[in-house]
Specification:
Chain lengths: 413, 334
């Protein structure tokens, strides 16, 4: 042979690139990637269906009705009073439902009626002496409106109402805060869902690698760190392709829907930086979780073992998400600082913070911290892999199958 | 009368076998130790592999061959000891000059043969385009050109194994390490691989391979390391290993008794019409003279030089030899 072109020593980065390039192209041009792209379609459809049902339930829960059981004249007076007041008080005025028009001398057991009907409280007595029966919270909420209704029914309400001039502003401090909180929550949830959806791919990838028995060739040629980094970045690249496809489809839907979809309030750092941070924090969250999954995948040899081992990690990640969600409502608190310091909750917390706080410097510091953690976790994972997995041993056909934990114990060389 | 001095006459009477010790070392290991949670898998292994040599690591399964190779390659780190591969203390620093075929063969099933070879080359620092070019040429040279664009999953096991061997060589390494390269190959392909190993060595490439088949080591190797129970009781040339035990004499005589019997060592065994014994230290000539002058009436006499198998038994012990033959893990270290 003796070709003039010689092979040369690869840096860790170059070696990682060789692995990443192979994995990226192999996955991208595989049939399973197509199904992977379709994957989120099912949860989205289910979420939309669940959302529709939920909205219906929510609507019913948000508009509780007040039952009325009075003498016929009193009922009519109360209904007329509501008709007069409702245009001014809008949702503050409960919807009235006539439960029964009472004959003279007739009484009613309010508790029985409450248990029977779909009303939140029952109004009995007379407009002069109304009796409101219901749960403490509900009757406390309706005490004022009922009093106003009774006064109107008795003709004792104000005869005229001064015209209130309306001077609208784009936002108020409280409204802005609430809006940004909504944006933060949406960003955090999206980030979490994408991370959980995509990080699992790393697991199956390494299990496949082990079943192909190619891992030893990789480990002999390049440092294990480079193998792990290569695999992580390949899967990150694949994830970005997936997100780009989904975002394009989602964007098309948004354009098609026009103004039918609610617009999120602008985040504190502005939309361009928010999107950039979203990409960076997705990468960080993905790499952090992926590095843990990769370590698990390197130790497990079957999909079942992967599922068993990854379950606690998934649960912990869920807890991290809850921590980040809680920290979002407690800016500057020790809880938020802890959520930022814990690498696995840090990306979610910081993205939510970006929606609420325009300061950029803490974002840069957090990204640096998360990047450092990625490097540490990958190195630890690579070391664990080399010390625990790359053992040789005699072939013993009659050896009974051992549990995973038992197999993590030493093997004979 | 028939006297057969066999191989012993050729190798034993001439100058001592060429030693690799005067050549620079491709691999130097001193006191390598590897423990797995207290179990000593490799226990103070010393190796010196001269550049350009064909070096065999011979031992039964479970003796520590693969762990030793993995330490040499930097796949796992030794707990103690030193290693120097092509002058580097960190094997990954010279990974571009090393080719490695692991015992457990592995390729991506969906990859085309040409891509699989180029990928292994790329891992060793060979540009991908150049790797593809060389891969096609190598496949053509080895009669597999028609399979260049076939996926690995479409190839037979033997063909896939050949593809992997070519991947081991595509970047033209200075040192090639094969872990049990002959396992899984049919006799024809074993012969091809033997020729390939010889050709590599002729081109100056150092080849080190592990095996539990003594015949391969005996045919191919300049030097061997016998490994058993994680230790290396012998490392050196095959000839030196065989010289560890004296040549075996097999004698058939017309006379049953007579003064010639005094020439036979005390532990000579009489089996049927034959006497078997180790050649006395004084050599063949005094023995022959004593037999003739003592009126033995020699019907046949053969002096066979010990084979590597006999040497292995003498060096590593019966248990290791049995394990080697039966391809079973040796139990003697328990």
């Amino acid at each position: 042979m003796n070709d003039p072109i010689r092979s040369g020593r690869l840096s860790t980065l170059a070696a990682a690139f060789v692995v990443a390039r192979r994995d990226f192209t192999a996955i991208l041009f595989s049939r399973s990637f197509f199904f992977f792209l379709l994957g989120p379609l099912f949860p989205v459809v289910i979420a939309l269906m669940a959302g529709g049902v939920g909205q219906h339930v929510n609507d019913a829960a948000d508009h509780p009705r007040l039952g009325v059981a009075m003498a016929t004249a009193d009922v009519d007076a109360m209904l007329a009073a509501r008709g007069a007041l409702a245009p001014r008080l809008n949702d503050a005025m409960p919807e009235l439902v006539v439960v029964r028009r009472l004959a003279p001398g007739e009484t009613i057991d309010a508790r029985v009626e409450l248990a029977r009907g779909d009303i939140a409280a029952l109004l009995t007595g007379t407009p002069r002496a109304p009796v409101l029966t219901g749960t403490p919270a509900q009757i406390a909420a309706w005490q004022g409106p009922v009093s106003l209704l009774a006064a109107q029914a008795l003709g004792e309400a104000p005869k005229s109402y001064p015209q209130v001039a309306l001077a609208g502003t784009a936002s108020s401090s409280a409204g802005e805060r609430k809006g940004r909180l909504l944006t933060a929550q949406a960003a955090q949830t999206l980030l979490f869902l994408l991370t959980m959806l995509l990080a699992g791919m790393v697991l199956s990838n390494l299990v496949e690698e082990k079943s192909n028995k190619i891992i030893e060739i990789l480990a002999a040629a390049i440092p294990m760190d480079a193998v792990f980094f290569g695999k992580l970045f390949a899967m990150l690249g694949v994830s970005f392709v997936g997100i780009a496809v989904w975002a394009s489809l989602g964007g098309s839907l948004v354009l098609a829907a026009g103004s039918a979809l609610p617009a999120l309030p602008a985040p504190a750092v502005g939309w361009p930086l928010m999107l950039l941070l979203g990409v960076i924090y997705f990468a960080m969250a993905y790499l952090l979780l992926g590095s843990v999954f990769l370590s698990i995948g390197s130790m497990a040899s079957t999909v079942r073992e992967v599922q068993t081992l990854s379950m606690p990690v998934t649960m912990l990640q869920l807890m991290n998400f809850f921590l980040a969600s809680y920290a979002m409502t407690q800016p500057g608190s020790p809880v938020e600082i802890a959520a930022i310091a814990i690498p696995f909750s840090s990306p979610f917390t910081m993205l939510a913070r970006a929606a609420q706080d325009p300061a950029v410097l803490p974002q840069i510091a957090a990204i640096a911290w998360q990047g450092l953690c990625v490097v540490i976790f990958v190195r630890l994972g690579a070391r664990l892999f080399r010390s625990r997995v790359m053992k040789s041993g005699p072939t013993r056909p009659a050896r009974p199958r051992k549990s995973l934990l038992a197999r993590l114990k030493p093997a004979r060389a | 009368m028939r006297i057969d001095l066999g191989e012993w006459q050729v190798a034993g009477n001439d100058s001592p076998p060429a030693s690799g010790m005067d050549r620079p070392l491709a691999i130097e290991a001193r006191g390598l130790v590897k423990r797995f949670d207290g179990f000593v898998a490799v226990d103070g292994v010393d190796l010196s592999v001269p550049e350009g040599a064909i070096y065999g690591i011979l031992g039964p399964n479970g003796a520590g061959k693969t762990t030793t190779l993995r330490m040499l390659l930097g796949i796992i780190e030794p707990d103690a000891g030193l290693r120097r591969i092509l002058g580097a203390e960190r094997p990954h620093d010279v990974a571009h000059a090393i080719g490695y075929l692991p015992e457990e063969r592995g390729l991506y099933p969906a990859m085309k043969a040409v891509e699989a070879i180029a990928f292994v080359g790329a891992l060793r620092g060979l540009p991908l385009a150049e790797g593809r070019r060389r891969a096609r040429r190598l496949l053509e040279e080895h009669g597999l050109g028609y399979a260049a664009d076939r996926q690995i999953r479409q190839l037979s096991k033997g063909m896939a194994q050949q593809v992997q061997i070519l991947g081991t060589l595509v970047h033209e390494p200075r040192l090639v390490i094969f872990d049990e390269p002959f396992s899984g190959l049919d006799a024809l392909n074993q012969g091809k691989l033997e020729r390939m190993i010889r050709a590599l060595a002729e081109n100056g490439t150092t080849v080190i391979f592990s095996t539990h088949v003594i015949a391969h080591a005996e045919r191919l190797c300049d030097e061997v390391a016998i490994i058993a129970g994680g230790k290396v009781p012998f490392a050196g040339s095959v000839d030196v290993a065989r010289d560890r035990i004296r040549p075996q004499v097999r004698l058939e005589t017309r006379a049953q008794h007579g003064p010639w019997r005094a020439a036979l060592p005390a532990d000579a065994r009489h089996e049927g019409a034959f006497w078997s014994f180790a050649l006395p230290e004084s050599g063949a000539e005094p023995l022959l003279r004593a037999l003739i002058e003592g009126d033995a009436g020699i019907l046949s006499l053969s002096i066979e030089r010990a084979g590597l198998h006999d040497a292995f038994v003498a060096i590593a012990g019966e248990a290791a030899a049995r394990a080697l033959e039966e391809d079973k893990p040796e139990e003697m270290r328990r």
